[in-house]
Specification:
By secondary structure, the chain is mostly helical. It has 21 helices and no strands. It has helices spanning 19-55, 61-77, 79-92, 95-113, 119-122, 125-153, 161-189, 193-199, 201-205, 207-219, 225-232, 240-270, 273-281, 286-314, 316-338, 343-359, 364-369, 377-391, 396-407, 411-429, 444-447. Helix 1 runs parallel beside helix 4 and helix 1 (19-55) packs antiparallel against helix 10.
């Protein structure tokens, strides 16, 4: 490996110069993804609670709820666009600049939702504007994750990539926790009709403050050392997406299915379905449901961090397999507990589910980063993630609601979630464990060797 130093005091080994720099990178990726996903989850939660009434009231209660969940899933269809754009520019101009743009895009879209007129005030214009802003959220989210992941993993020491990579992953349950807590507090301060009149707007408007904080933090972090070295050598790939699909298409598809197995199950809470089910079908109060989700988010957070960290010791693949088995157990126990209508058991069901979700989410950053060569890595991780989100969480709340309305129960929903868990497990088993593989540009030949059992991948 080359011994020269990259710009900003960064070395091409994939580490950074001081413990202070490492802490700043971890802190920045956690805060950045927390802000991004606070915005995303606030929308999803409101879709389950009030958007059917506020924006789709003429369709009736049942159809209005379905249409509301359609808008949740619609943004996922635009995640690949965000992933393609972010992947191209992230592999061409750098990880950090792309992250700032995606954070700003998400924040602006979220704040504008907070000032939208409702259907009662503006008619059909209201849901059209809502959908357009949701699309902007989807494009931003599609570009956010890959950049945050690579900033964390490419800065990490080789034996701590799982722990560093868990930082942006932890931002997801933190975003859910923050969103649930804010909405629960606003619900208490503006109960009943007041929440429908103005209270629902407050969590969206708070995103303005978070944009400023996140932008300041992200601008203070140095560029990824791997990309700094690529830029110094002018080794950027001109068409990274073309190279990615021509050479690593099978890897992208299977990596997407790994995430789909986690994302479909996770979106029972992050997509807003369980919130609406608890409040509308089980008769729990809105604060009871939201605080239960917050408890589950804490468990998810802790297990996500643990999953990333333990994967440095026992390997990504083994951590995933354990996680899939626990996720299946969580799926099977969820509805027997939730359907009691007891708030304590409701929270317990979500907490048990969160154990497996954390273990199948924590290692994902390092697992993905170690699949792709440096020159197409941003494109690879971003597009795999975006496709996985479409196959998994995009319409999971809509599917769950449709199954519930069609059958009048939750058994079909349980089988759907269990099937997606099995898909994730089988896709994971197709991959070799590549923990510790060098990530720098000097090792492209080694990185280009297949991460799959029995599938040939040649050097790009």
């Amino acid at each position: 490996m080359s011994s020269h130093t990259a710009p900003g005091g960064l070395t091409p080994t994939g580490t950074i110069s001081s413990a202070g720099d490492r802490r700043r990178v971890v802190f920045a990726t956690v805060i950045g993804t927390t802000i991004e996903w606070y915005d995303f989850f606030t929308y999803a939660t409101m879709a389950g609670l009030v958007f059917g009434t506020l924006f789709f009231e003429p369709a009736g209660a049942g159809v209005g709820t379905l249409l509301s969940f359609v808008t949740v899933g619609l943004s996922f269809l635009f995640r690949p666009l965000g992933a393609f754009l972010a992947g191209h520019f992230g592999d061409r101009v750098g990880r950090r600049q792309v992250l700032v743009v995606t954070l700003f895009g998400m924040g602006v879209a979220t704040a504008l939702i907070g000032v939208l007129p409702t259907f009662a005030a503006a008619g059909i214009v209201a849901p059209i504007l809502l959908i357009l802003l949701r699309v902007l959220q989807g494009v931003s989210a599609g570009g956010e994750w890959g950049g945050a992941v690579l900033m964390a993993v490419e800065h990490a020491p080789r034996d701590k990539r799982g722990a560093f990579g868990a930082a942006p992953q932890v931002g997801v349950p933190l975003g859910l926790l923050l969103s649930s807590a804010v909405i629960a507090i606003v619900s208490a301060l503006a109960p009943g009709d007041a929440f429908l009149e103005w209270g629902w707007r407050v969590p969206f408007l708070l995103s303005v403050v978070l944009i400023v904080v996140g932008y300041w933090i992200r601008r203070s972090v140095e560029e990824s050392p791997v990309f700094a070295e690529i830029a110094e050598r002018s080794a950027q790939t001109k068409t990274p997406i073309v190279v990615l699909f021509r050479t690593y298409g099978v890897v992208v598809v299977l990596a997407a299915l790994v995430f789909a197995g986690n994302n479909a199950v996770g979106y029972m809470t992050t997509g807003g379905w369980i919130q609406g089910y608890g409040a509308n079908a089980l008769g729990l109060t809105r604060p009871e449901v939201l605080w239960s989700v917050a408890v589950g988010a804490v468990i998810w957070l802790v297990l996500t961090w643990f999953g990333g960290t333990i994967s440095d010791r026992i390997g990504r693949r083994r951590t995933y397999v354990i996680g899939w088995l626990l996720q299946a157990a969580g799926v099977l126990s969820l509805f027997p507990l939730v359907n009691t209508g007891n708030v304590v058991l409701f929270a317990l069901g979500l907490s048990i589910l969160s154990v497996g979700l954390g273990l199948t989410y924590g290692p994902q950053s390092s697992f993905y980063a170690e699949m792709f060569p440096a020159s197409v890595r941003f494109s690879g991780v971003s597009i795999s993630y975006a496709i996985g989100a479409i196959c998994g969480g995009a319409f999971a709340p809509l599917v769950a609601e449709a199954l519930f309305q069609a059958t009048g129960g939750t058994t079909a929903v349980m089988w759907y979630l269990l099937a997606m868990t099995i898909v994730g497990l089988l896709a994971t088993l197709a991959f070799r464990n590549r923990a510790g593989i060098p990530l720098g540009i000097d090792h492209e030949a080694e990185q280009a060797k297949t991460p799959l059992y029995g599938v040939g991948v040649t050097e790009a």
